[in-house]
Amino acid sequence: xxxxxxxxxxxxxxxxxxxxxxxxxxxxxxxxxxxxxxxxxxxxxxxxxxxxxxxxxxxxxxxxxxxxxxxxxxxxxxxxxxxxxxxxxxxxxxxxxxxxxxxxxxxxxxxxxxxxxxxxxxxxxxxxxxxxxxxxxxxxxxxxxxx
Length: 147
Known about the structure:
Elements: E1 5-11, E2 14-22, E3 29-36, E4 39-47, H1 57-77, H2 123-126, H3 134-145
Antiparallel strand pairs: 1-2, 2-3, 3-4
């Protein structure tokens, strides 16, 4: 049995929790659950009985878990799962503060990009980069933070 993934995802004012677990070789399945406030909104179960005897089973199961976890995050962020009712509490203001337009916040100055000095090129610099979507990069980062 492999250690799973647990990720909290803030989305549209609510905090969602995504959990992915491995059932182990006696129950070869991967289960991903999407929660909000302890209630399961969605679940996905995938069997991997067909690869249990493969020599690289552990690595393949780890990759399946990661992909299933990322897919649940992508579906959430694309708006597939919504919660009825207000998503966030509205702030109430005293009547004396509601009379005029709200002041606009000052824009924060953008930091100057740092110059990267050019150095000797290494062999690894010559290899073509693997193209990945921004979604995949961000989701990998979110997953790695949760470890």
